[in-house]
Amino acid sequence: MKTDLQIQHDVMAELEWDPRIDSSRIGVAVKEGVVELSGIVPSFQQKIEAEKAARRVEGVIAIAQELQVHYPGDAKVADSEIARRVQDIIAWDVSVPTERIQIKVERGWVTLSGTVEWNFQREAARKAATRIHGVLGLTNLIEIHHVPAAADVRDRIVTAFRRHADFDANQIIVTTRDGTVTLDGHVNSWRERQIAEGATWNAPGVTAVKDNLAVA
Questions:
Q1: Which pTM was predicted?
Q2: What is the side-by-side strand order in the sheet with 62-69?
Q3: What is the pLDDT of residue 150?
Q4: 133-166, pLDDT tens digit by residue?
Q5: Angle ∠(203,204,205) on CA atoms, nearest 5
Q6: pLDDT (tens digit per residue) in 103-133
Q7: SS3 readout for the chain
């Protein structure tokens, strides 16, 4: 089992390795497997990438995200301009029903709302908005409204788990209710937890996922 010092070293190395991240102003602290990221990054996208990099490291059980976004020269972009850019970039993605999504921007913070049928559409809208210059943060309130398929959602999820060689599906307990899927049990790494949650979202009829999986 890794010590906090080893985890800290590996997280810092992962941040430095990722060419999308300027790690020169990022601080890393670790206590009992919980990683705290602090400091300054030049874009909201880099803030997200830094968190993803930390989650990739074995031994990390949680992230405390304290990074601040400071654009070069502290350049300010008007909220109306940010909203227009977000609208345009989402409209470019043909998989996202743009007409169902509402965009609000206040002091650089973007809030997305509306309804879609699939989680991948919700994620596509979120990812598109994070790429816009001037965005300081994002709240994704887009809801998933999808008529559940007649097939047994739980069986589809369990079957999907068993197709993955990355983890033991028997360690995961799946329960469903009104489109909400709850995952209980444990996995061996953060990556296994992400795979399990991703497979769950891909099942038809899933509108929410409660991930209670513990990382052993």
A1: 0.56
A2: 26-31, 34-41, 62-69
A3: 37
A4: 888 889 999 988 765 553 466 777 777 777 776 6
A5: 115
A6: 999 988 999 999 988 888 988 999 899 888 8
A7: CCCHHHHHHHHHHHHHHCCCCCHHHEEEEEECCEEEEEEEECCHHHHHHHHHHHHCCCCCCEEEEEEEECCHHHCCCCHHHHHHHHHHHHHHCCCCCHHHEEEEEECCEEEEEEEECCHHHHHHHHHHHHCCCCCCEEEECCEECCCCCCCCHHHHHHHHHHHCCCCCHHHEEEEEECCEEEEEEEECCHHHHHHHHHHHHCCCCCCEEEECCEEC
